[in-house]
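Subject: Interface between my chains keeps coming out wrong

I've been trying for a while to get a sensible model of this assembly. When I model each chain on its own everything looks fine, but I need the whole thing in one frame so I can look at the contacts. Pasting all components below, labels as-is. Any help appreciated, I'm running out of ideas.
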Amino acid sequence: MAREKKGDESSAERDALAREQANAAGGESEMDLLLSEDGEARRRFLKQALIAGGGLAAANLLLHYQTNVAAQTRASANLVSTQTATAGAIPVTLRVNGRDYALQIEPQVTLLDALRERIGLTGSKKGCDRGQCGACTVLADGHRINSCLALAAAYEGAEITTVEGLARGEELHPVQAAFIKHDGFQCGYCTPGQIMSAVGLLHEGCPPGMTVRECMSGNICRCGAYNGIVAAVEEARGAKA
Amino acid sequence: MSDQNIGKPVPRKEGRAKVTGAARYVDDLAVPGMLYGVTVRSHVARGRISEIIFGDRIPWDEFTVVTARDIPGANAVALILNDQPYLADRIVNHAEEPILLLAHEDKYLLEEARRAVRVEIEPLPAVFSIEDSLAKKEIVWGEDNVFKSFLVEKGNVDEVWDSPGLVVVEGVYATGAQEQLYIETNGVIATASREEGVVVQGSMQCPYYVHKALVKLFDLPEDKVRVIQTETGGGFGGKEEYPSMIAGHAALLAWKSGRPVKMIYDRAEDMTATTKRHPSRTRHRTAVTRAGQLLGMEIDFVIDGGAYATLSAVVLSRGTIHAAGPYNCPNVRIRSRAVATNAPPHGAFRGFGAPQSIFALERHLDKVAAAVGLAPEELRRRNFISRGETTATGQVIREEVDMGALLDRAFELSDYHAKRERFSRENVGNKIKRGIGFASFMHGAGFTGSGEKYLQSVVGCEATAEGRVRVLAASTEIGQGTNTIFAQIAADALGLDYERVEVVRPDTASVPNSGPTVASRTCMIVGKLVESAALQLKQTLAGAGLLQEPYTAEEFERACREYIEKNGALKSFSQYRQPEGVEWDDEHYRGDAYGAYAWAVYVAEVSVDTLTYEARVEDFVAVQEVGRVIHPVLAAGQIEGGVAQGVGWTLYESVVWAGGRMANGQMTNYIIPTSADIPPIRVHFFENPYAGGPAGAKGIGELPMDGPAPAILNAVEHATGVRFDSVPLTPEAIMEALEGEAVKA
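Reply #2:
Try treating it as a single job with all components included. I did that and got this:
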């Protein structure tokens, strides 16, 4: 099938580079493929959503970034398209699921893109890329965040947990098991975000006077599996109490 | 056949992968050397392309650029009329129509490039409403703007109106567009070359639709095109026809660039450019006796198809056939039309026309009941269809059907009568008004009329030397549970454990065409083929003298091994055959429209806040007869999910149109229900096995979309005393009406 096909020489080179990075990150074969695209990701233009969502850290990064845009725009004008080192990239170490990943990334890369495209953890999903659907929810130091609105570089030093980091080997996290038991999903696309949101909620606790339905309302499920989701969260809360 | 899996809540086949993040959707995959692709679209609803300008500061020579001129085969998305181009050539007929494709390895630069392309378009007059299209304010399609029309005649409705002692009730009802809003946007990865052919993998409901479209687009032999479904993050109809478009686009870029191309739509692009539910307008004129017997129904049903024919003819067909509902009325005329406007083409969405026409009917019958002084349920009881009676198309109902029993159970579970009385009493002087209402309806399973006969679907079953069984079908798992129920059906047919059966990922290179994953047909039609293919497998082993009933799993395994050693492979295929006695007349639209119907009564309880004008659904009861329930938890999930989408369509989801473009293409201003907006949904099944379905099952996927809108609006009328006859019912609409009432008072 297509995915096993090898590309031309230059892409083979990129693959080798990507594999090196993947190995450095302790990657698997699937990840090699994923990473092959990212040796090339450059000249990133800051999306408006990031400006809206990033806060003070983002503002600082933005200043840093603007100079890079100028440099990169010049690079584009010179038709330089095969740069190897990423111009404007900065070293960032992310701690994800108990493991450190040393990355070279541009300051404007979102945590979601860093997880999915640099580290190869594709469990967190991109449903809207604007913080509107919750499919990208991960935990940062135990708190739920929309990783599509978070800048990766701002999360150096934080303990990031994604859906891949919940199960202990074959043993599912109680929230994962409860989602299966109560059929808290159908198509599964919002599910990693729902589950991370639920785990975060168990940690945060539902504020007084608020229901689980309200506390989970930032995670949209179009299949409408809400009754199953709420039942799963209630059960996991009960088990924890 | 054993009965150890069907009816049991076995674990979902793909459940573990979905809760651990291991499930791979198309955007989770990458191919070495891959480019990204994007689409340059029209910003004008109708016009003539005069110039395409490539802005400066973009290294264009690094880009692959595809226009209509690069298409090797036919520039039309093969579906029914093939009138929709892959890329507009000179003329655009709707906003967001694809004009040009770009690919580059850097997706961020690609986005800059997309914005740097300026398409100059001289605007032409456009049509944006059903009324303007019918009035031929401008002819924008064919000779008269009409994609398709149907006429259904039963008895002679013209002779009814003048009969003495009749009450005639008229009404007009409207529904709006609705975005499917699957959380995974449309996406594919394509490779393509003349030598190797075209391979596309991606998110889709119907791999063979995509296959058919690509064969025509590239003018390739069928075996040079391969389509593979990846894990799919929801469809609801939105990935029925549209994937043929994005797959073609990615493949065209791959063909020209010689590199694999990935195309993933951004959320806003997916919302504004892809299909939505057809807006509709329905007129009813009903003759009823003072005793509440329906004598005549004249229905005029019109849907807005958007700029191209796409699937509108079949959406119209289903809407037309369901327009007269589960009632026995001797004289019926249904006239229906799908008309063209310059909106992006409207398309498949769960229910496929039926929710629109059923909404109109079930709102209208509350009005009819009031006109003759009957309770809404009493009017319906006096007219419910039963065995031996005929539907609007003259289909004789051969199965036992007891709508009255469904109504009784729904009223009992919802405490309907007590609440109706109590809310009426307590609403006086209360700022929060409460109400309760219901709708009764049916939904046909499978393709309409002769559709299944023409489809000739095939399913395969294969056993391995280890005694494992693989189901081969093109029916896709999109969250509704295809893989799980197919495995249950095959396992029971063979008397094996559920774990022994695996459902193969749909790939046109390795599975037969079991038809599209649409029309509530997967369980009933395709499931029946799974059952018969599995039974044939057993018969093959028995015929070879290798297996005798009863047998153990070990004996089955040994028989498979011996058969395969001797014959190489053990496979069986089953093809659809129309059941005896099913007749459909396509020309006059008469006869057996569907093999079977699911029947239902839904009750909604609402509150309307007269300060904020918000309506909320507080409680919901869904009672239905669906034949045999294959998987009680997944089946209930289908009902709950359909009800949630129905609640959204009714109260929240408002597509704002501005010059033929969706102006609110984001999840912050196009509002769909969250967990806080959906009440507990109490689902109850009546089981009445249907001989044409596997173990007696009928279809259920679309049914729950039909009932919520009329049930909720009937409840809102009870709460407020004001009639609302269109959805979405936004707070603004409630405010306008209630303030109007206050002025009158």
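Reply #3:
Confirming on my end. The first strand of chain A starts at residue 90 and ends at 96.
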